[in-house]
Here is the input.
Amino acid sequence: MTEMTGPTPMPDTHSPAIRSNQPADAHAAVYRYDEFDKTFIFERVEQFRAQVERRLKGEITEEEFKPIRLMNGLYLQLHAYMLRVAVPYGMLSSTQVRRLARIARVYDKGYGHFTTRQNIQFNWPKLEDVPTILRELAEVDMHAIQTSGNCIRNVTTDQFCGAAADELVDPRVYAEILRQWSTLHPEFTYLPRKFKIAITGSPNDRAAVQVHDIGLIAKKDEVTGRVGFTVYVGGGQGRTPYLAVKARDFVPVEEIIGYLEAILRVYNQLGRRDNIYKARIKITVNEMGADKFIGLIEEEYARLPRQKFYVDPAIVDAIQTHFAPPPWLDLPAVSDSFEAAKQADPAFARWTRTNLTAHRTPGYAIATISLKPIGGIPGDIEADQMETVADLADLYSFGEVRVTHEQNLVLAHVRQDDLYPLWQALDAVGLGTANAGLISDIIACPGLDYCALANTRSIPVAQRIAERFSDLDRQHDLGELKIKISGCINACGHHHVGHIGILGVDKKGDEFFQILLGGDAGTNAALGEIVGPGFDYDGIIDAVETVVNTFVKLRQPGEIFIQTLARTGHAPFKEALYARA
Amino acid sequence: MLVKAKGTQQSVAASRLLDGEAVWLGAGNIWVEDVALAAVFDGADAIAEALAFAKAEEKRQIVVDVYPLDVEITDQGTRPTHLRERLKGIGPTVRRDLGKQARQPAA
Here is the structure.
């Protein structure tokens, strides 16, 4: 489709697919459509093409057209339309990444923006081009369904699935089952409000499940050995943040659809449709009381025909084949060339400290590609860079790319021997920043630079913080520190669960920023608390640095920011921020 | 439109249906891409009349998302008073190569 664009010569490949003349992404773990899926997607595109034509002819009004375009991922933003493309549970093949690059180049402005829902957005499509864009997506098993509207949205999951050492169950299998259950579900297409599900296959939450409408965390029943999920319900961020409550400690995997069907039925009946700000399930759960809501779920679950929703192991097996492990080689646990490269190149060694995660298979590693270069726009990636990532995925990671909810990319199966050439190639195109999980690895919503709902800009705040802390040695010394920035109360930038959260507010037409401390999106999920009065556009960067410097003064050996904060409380940080006032 | 227009001087903003381009109602009821050229309507009657025309344009499939906004008149032309509306007239501040600002001739 496109020629190799990598800036450095690509070495001989270790890819078994390439060596065997298969497509380079033959082993990429993406769900590959059958004829039924393909027919449905192409018919949906032509349906939308006809709807656009009718809209342009005036046969349907904007009021009638708006819900239709939203169901196909098309928003109208501040400067132009915006098309949000689904990346189911964050999994992409290199072929799909190249197609996204082509769409960015041909129909948009040469770049895309990865989101906290593991999707990608194009910020400048023309309405008349969108049906053709959707057709191009359909050709590579992609679409924009369930990226908008009051339906069950694209299910998100752990970006390290299928590779992480701590995994109990492959969450992609169940995320795909949830996708098939929820797409065009006749009862759940017009819910009271949008509905987000996150699922993690390991006991360690890397998918922020407790701030989702439903969160699933894999669990093994120690007595029976059965695998299932702990089910959380009623979490969410936005203007009224709540952590989810535990609905059931254990639901066996084969019963998970039935249990979720029961939750959705109760919500669909009782969720408020009279007030958009109170329509999410978190409000229903908390207004009613968790115990009562869970009781209603259990009543519904007892009533519904279980057999109809039973997840047949044969179906699980069939879906599992799409996510079969790639043909890993038997390798020594330690790579001499990897160790030598770390010794020889300190910049590479630094990258390995933050951007690598242990793989379940000896000799392999999981590599995080930071989309947060210092001064860059969080989540943005140019078309040329997408193609380089696709090429590198083919060479080094079975042609597979993952999108993270923290707006980065992941190559999940890289041989340790290949890590140095991989990093060199990434670094040559600005994708080799050694900052995953550090202070400059910031989640930021598009903010007022693009979004019609925002009160303030988010991206330039993220850029200026990253520039203030541009010294990577300083960042590494600070350790894990997650800053998350939202340009309005809708919290698309996840500010409620940032170790340091920043919320933009409109103060008589000027941009102001509140600081929240103590949020956490992980296994010990917590909502941050506003620390005090806000700061203006210039002052917010100094304020963040004051918080960080306070942490440095207070920390004990080995502590990261969130641990120090938990030990000291907010008082010393508040004092440092406001003492000078 | 999240910011309610309440001033005596207002313009009318919209997005062009075909490509989503931000436009404003200009002199002679022509849609213009430069907010500095947006017509300024003084008083409730003039604003209502302009909005009625814009709404009719919506029905003619020319524009969508019509709304009034507060503006002031400056030496450089019409200037929205709210930041959001000023950014709509410029483009993303983090990508000066994109949006309307990218079309300005170099100074």
In short: Strands of chain B lie at 9-16, 22-25, 31-32, 41-42, 63-74, 77-80.
